[in-house]
């Protein structure tokens, strides 16, 4: 999108579909419709977002202010009063714009934001205040809105992407550790791997933002079961052509959110963050209220994940977090702490009492040991980032499932993960040597012996620890869904897997076939073959 000026001495420009004044000011005194207090909130939210998460109501306040400006036609005047304040309003309004008006409208607003940023971004630090113009998800919006075409890593894989009703809000669903369900979908949707011709497709991707709709729309397991079963029977047009073996479903949490999957998609390919999914018999959603039922009615399924057809993928870490973690990480030789862990246990979250035995509680017994930083969560997320960036080893204990997003977070801080989850499935272990950049320790042996082992590594095997640290830095791009490294990203890892599946997959030549006889010379078929048709 370009900025088009009207005449050499013009005072108005067009940004997208909007016409705004070139005389943008930074006083942010307020207009008739937007008081100075709105700009104050915008500044404080913009500032706070660089340190931690902000309560949802503040984002809604900024969203409503922007929508009111646009409806009233007062947007040009607001830009003249506080151009970068308007940019902050837009950026925070985008998820709500998607919910209210659809992704196409959100894309239009994002282009307006980009126009304002390009035109007035040089004013970012005027009047004693520095605008950041960034939320925790905004760096990913170009990919999520289809403004950043993706390649296919020369994989030779072609994927047909279905359109489903529960995969229509990528911006709203792009936050949090379950967002791999969004990013893999949007990557395939906007990559050169995609084909809209089912006859060319090697695989068929079925996008469903299950974790998002279950948490944000409060859909139950029964709701999802009905949705998925109808989807398979009525909407997956090409499912029966190969019996579903070329159809891909993605599970971004510790559960397969399709309770009846064994009846409908037992042979389909699963991309999953969890290799031992949790199955429950009589309640829908994990919460503190249902924690007492977990041990009685939920269990890990040790056979649901089939290694010969299914594949473990990493959980999602926001680009904002990745950038902050990398900015705060210290060089190996300057780190102060032997090992760190800051997170919840069953004393803080009752459901962990049934989900992970005692591993998180056992870690708390190391609190107070010299060189160990052990405790609960920091108030500000950047304090946590700063701490793990100052640690040699970081504990990654079992969560509700065997997988843990902490495993990926700590690597972005340059910290060597110590995996405390006996049955965890590790992504890309068919080509990554996890033993070169992580440690794994039995869950039921967490205590002084573990601490002494780590202390001994630093004291007596320093070169080996330094080599592991370098391997962490070298391999963490495989877990970064915003990686732009052409040789290292989760998408490349997934495509490697799909390429191997493609080479091994049986292919029929249609529903029926007959004896093929040589064509008679001169027939239309023979002529076409001679002419290359």
TrEMBL record:
<dbReference type="InterPro" id="IPR040911">
    <property type="entry name" value="Exostosin_GT47"/>
</dbReference>
<protein>
    <submittedName>
        <fullName>GUT1 protein</fullName>
    </submittedName>
</protein>
<dbReference type="Pfam" id="PF03016">
    <property type="entry name" value="Exostosin_GT47"/>
</dbReference>
<feature type="domain" description="Exostosin GT47">
    <location>
        <begin position="155"/>
        <end position="446"/>
    </location>
</feature>
<dbReference type="GO" id="GO:0016757">
    <property type="term" value="F:glycosyltransferase activity"/>
</dbReference>
<dbReference type="InterPro" id="IPR004263">
    <property type="entry name" value="Exostosin"/>
</dbReference>
<comment type="similarity">
    <text>Belongs to the glycosyltransferase 47 family.</text>
</comment>
């Amino acid at each position: 999108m370009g900025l088009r000026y009207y005449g050499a001495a013009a005072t108005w420009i067009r940004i997208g579909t909007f016409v705004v004044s070139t005389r943008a000011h930074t006083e942010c005194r307020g207009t008739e419709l937007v008081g100075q207090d709105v700009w104050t909130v915008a500044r404080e939210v913009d500032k706070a977002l660089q340190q931690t998460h902000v309560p949802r109501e503040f984002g809604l306040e900024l969203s409503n202010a922007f929508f009111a400006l646009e409806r009233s036609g007062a947007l040009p005047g607001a830009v003249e009063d506080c151009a970068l304040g308007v940019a902050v309003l837009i950026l925070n309004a985008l998820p709500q714009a998607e919910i209210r008006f659809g992704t196409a409208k959100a894309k239009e607003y994002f282009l307006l934001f980009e126009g304002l940023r390009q035109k007035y971004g040089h004013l970012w630090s005027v009047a004693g205040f520095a605008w950041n113009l960034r939320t925790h998800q905004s760096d990913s919006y170009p990919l999520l809105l289809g403004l950043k075409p993706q390649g296919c890593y020369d994989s030779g894989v072609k994927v047909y992407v279905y359109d489903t009703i529960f995969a229509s809000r990528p911006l709203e669903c792009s936050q949090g550790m379950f967002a791999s369900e969004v990013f893999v979908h949007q990557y395939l949707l906007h990559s050169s791997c995609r084909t809209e011709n089912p006859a060319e497709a090697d695989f068929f991707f079925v996008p469903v933002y299950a974790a998002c709709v279950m948490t944000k729309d409060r859909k139950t397991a029964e709701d999802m079961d009905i949705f998925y079963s109808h989807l398979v029977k009525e909407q997956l047009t090409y499912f029966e052509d190969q019996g579903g073996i070329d159809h891909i479903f993605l599970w971004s949490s510790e559960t397969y959110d399709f309770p009846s999957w064994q009846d409908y998609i037992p042979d389909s390919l699963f991309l999953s963050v969890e290799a031992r999914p949790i199955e429950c018999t009589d309640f829908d959603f994990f919460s503190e209220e249902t924690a007492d039922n977990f041990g009685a009615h939920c269990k890990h399924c040790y056979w649901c994940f089939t290694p010969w057809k299914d594949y473990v993928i990493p959980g999602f870490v926001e680009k904002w977090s990745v950038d902050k973690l990398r900015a705060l990480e210290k060089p190996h030789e300057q780190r102060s702490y032997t090992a760190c862990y800051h997170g919840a246990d069953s004393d803080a979250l009752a459901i962990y009492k049934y989900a992970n035995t005692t591993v998180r509680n056992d870690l708390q017994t190391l609190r107070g040991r010299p060189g160990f930083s052990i405790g609960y969560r920091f108030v500000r997320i950047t304090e946590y980032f700063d701490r793990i960036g100052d640690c040699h080893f970081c504990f990654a204990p079992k969560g509700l499932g065997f997988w843990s997003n902490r495993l990926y977070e700590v690597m972005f801080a340059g910290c060597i993960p110590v995996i405390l989850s006996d049955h965890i499935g590790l992504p890309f272990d068919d080509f990554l040597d996890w033993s070169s950049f992580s440690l794994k320790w039995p869950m039921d042996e967490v205590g002084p012996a573990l601490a002494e082992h780590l202390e001994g590594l630093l004291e007596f095997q320093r070169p080996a620890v330094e080599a592991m640290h370098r391997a962490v830095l070298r391999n963490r791009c495989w877990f970064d869904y915003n990686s732009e490294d052409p040789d290292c990203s989760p998408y490349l890892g997934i495509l490697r897997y799909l390429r191997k599946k493609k080479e091994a997959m049986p292919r029929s030549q249609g529903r029926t076939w007959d004896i093929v006889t040589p064509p008679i010379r001169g027939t239309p078929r023979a002529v076409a073959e001679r002419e290359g048709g």
